[in-house]
Write a structure and sequence with these properties.
67 residues, mainly alpha
């Protein structure tokens, strides 16, 4: 499925997406998290809970990169 996630390499790529596609991107990210945790174990709730917040922050804010 990962059609949107495969197009995202950084915050600037999130900004290029249409607002309507952000929910689909979040769904793809959650699917990857679920798949990874089911194989490797780990904490699930905190990872799933932060997906929308992180995508929204990258969509709205200009994230600065420090060198």
């Amino acid at each position: 499925m990962r059609k949107l996630l495969g197009q995202v390499c950084g915050p600037s790529d999130v900004k290029k997406l249409d607002f309507e596609h952000l929910g689909d991107l979040c769904k793809e990210i959650r699917e990857v998290i679920l798949s990874t945790i089911s194989k490797n174990g780990g904490h699930l709730a905190s990872n799933l809970g932060i997906v929308e917040l992180t995508v929204a922050l990258h969509y709205v804010l200009i994230c600065l990169r420090t060198n």
